[in-house]
Amino acid sequence: MRRSLLPIAALAFALAGSACSKEADPAKASPEADEATKKAEATPAADPEKPSEPVQEADPNEACLKILVVAHAELEGDEKPENSEKLRDKPAALAHARSLLAKLGAGETFESLVLSDSDDERTKAKRGGTGTFTRDAWPERYEPLKEPIFGLPIAGRTDVLDTPIGFVIAERCAVDKVHTRHILIRYAGAKRADDDVKRSRDEAKAEAEALRAKIAGGEDFAEVAKEKGEDGTAERGGDLGPIGRGMFAYAYEEAAWSLKPGELSPVVETDFGFHIIERLADGGSDEAAAGEG
After folding, report:
1. CATH entry 3.10.50.40 includes domain 1-22+58-175
2. I need a surface site. Which of 36, 126, 157, 212 has the fewest CB within 10 A?
3. What is the pLDDT of residues 122-160, one digit of tens each?
């Protein structure tokens, strides 16, 4: 069986554009704004004696990126959606993007608006997550976003940006990495499964469950991964290294970040098949990977 690397992000297109902003008239206060002001004034001030949660300082050399994308009918090239005839025209898309930026400013979460309104299928399922990148290894797809993002504090966001994939609102998220290893069992029809994968989904799940039981019973994870894993990490015992949020399928991330070092996940399904996940020590060694914690 040919093994192929587990895709963790699509990084193949260039972004370019400039900020598009819409200034609000401070003299025209809406009833909603008046109500928000009243609520803010009624909110008790923070207790100066109570220590606040530490805020991660922005790293000048590494950043986590989330995006919310509003596509329009004038897009060209590979980024033009198949259903482009049903998309908004460019002025309508810009107006919609600005309305989403206003909703973010009013308190709606970035993740919820990505799920309801983002047109970028590559990142929508990951709540807008694209990954965590250093300056020197910043993907070409997001190159024009690099300087704006590095100029923001953690949780800061850009204005609406006009790019080749549509109008983009980008947010800088806190760098949050986890070191895992996994065993992937594919089934016929799963994403990136080779033609020689013939097992059904149910058969793949049963096999993954059986392998997990063996590992929980004392078999060495790395050795099982080398023998049974079906992606490019198998030869190194399934080790994926320390990876930031936004790079994995969302179900994988939810499982991985819920684990403590040394813990084994239940069998997790993604578009690629079924995974058995183990979290390793943050330093990258196997010392903490001693079975189920």
Report:
1. yes
2. 36
3. 899 899 999 999 999 999 888 889 999 999 999 999 999
Buried b (16+ CB within 10 A) or exposed e, 246-284: bbbbeebbebbeebebbbbbebbbbebbbbbbbbbeeee
Asked if the domains at 1-22+58-175 and 177-279 fall in one CATH topology, the answer is yes
The per-residue pLDDT for range 222-248, each reduced to its tens digit, is 999 999 999 999 999 999 999 998 889
Q: Which residue has the tokens 């990876």?
A: 243
**What gap in Å lies between CA 252 and CA 250, rounded to an integer?**
5
Q: How far is CA 210 from CA 206, 218, 229, 265, 267, in A?
A: 6, 13, 13, 13, 10
What would the two tokens of residue 133 be? 């990148």
Asked: is 177-279 a CATH 3.40.50.300 domain? The reply is no
Which residues does 187 contact at the CB level (< 8 Å), separation at least 6?
193, 197, 199, 200, 201, 203, 204, 205, 273, 274
Query: Tokens for 19?
Result: 């900020």
Q: Where would I find the beta strands (DSSP E) of 160-236?
A: 160-163, 166-173, 177-185
- Other Cβ atoms less than 10 A from the Cβ of 202: the count is 9
